[in-house]
Write a structure and sequence with these properties.
This protein has 4 helices and 7 strands; from the N terminus they run βααββββαββα. By secondary structure, the chain is α+β, with helices and mostly antiparallel strands. The chain folds into 2 domains: about 90 residues, no CATH class; about 55 residues.
Length: about 200
């Protein structure tokens, strides 16, 4: 008896589809948000310093309210950036490779390639920083697509590369076994029919 996995781990998951591996983009893609957090902390500290030492300046109240509103919007931007990072995942199942790119407000993209359609996979990891921090790019070539599927800034690209290759090999092996069983069943039925006549 097979388990019904419909929409179990992600929306659009098929009934007999099993998640083999999933990952997110490398944390290096969030480096700008880390810089923004440092800048936010410095600006917030400066505002507190200004508020404490310049209490008697005219219109300081209105300026502080405007600064608090601006800081709230900025903090919201940083927070949604981190949430968007965790919403974007790359999934390998026993049937497909799926890239799910979501954001809280604007984006909801899904890019899918069936394992049997994959012709070639290339791992690209050029430069000192990508090799030190272990991130790179995978290019999945599919003959039916005009452009290949490109997965940028993926952490541990060697592991992901092996997982796709292993999933593809297992998928092809499983399909061959199903065909052999089907052929054996047809041959047995033909044999029984020929003996009956």
């Amino acid at each position: 008896m097979t388990t019904d996995n419909t929409d179990r781990h992600f929306k659009g998951q098929q009934r007999s589809e099993v998640v083999v591996y999933y990952t997110r983009k490398h944390w290096i893609t969030q480096i700008y948000l880390f810089i923004e957090i440092i800048a936010f902390t410095l600006v917030f500290g400066a505002l507190i310093f200004v508020a404490v030492y310049l209490k008697e300046v005219a219109h300081i109240g209105e300026l502080m309210i405007a600064a608090v509103v601006a800081m709230t919007v900025w903090l919201h931007h940083i927070f949604t950036g981190f949430l968007n990072y965790f919403l974007g995942i790359i999934v390998i199942t026993n049937f497909r490779v799926i890239i799910l790119e979501k954001s809280i407000y604007i984006k909801d993209d899904k890019d899918v390639v069936d394992l049997h359609e994959i012709q070639d996979i290339k791992k690209i990891q050029h430069g000192i920083i990508p090799n030190l921090l272990n991130y790179g790019k995978l290019v999945v070539v599919v003959p039916t697509m005009i452009q290949p599927m490109i997965i940028n800034a993926i952490g541990d690209p060697e592991k992901f590369f092996r997982k796709i290759n292993n999933a593809k090999r297992d998928y092809i092996h499983e399909r061959q076994q199903q065909r052999l069983k089907m052929l054996a069943g047809n041959n047995q039925t033909d044999y029984e029919v020929s003996r009956a006549t």
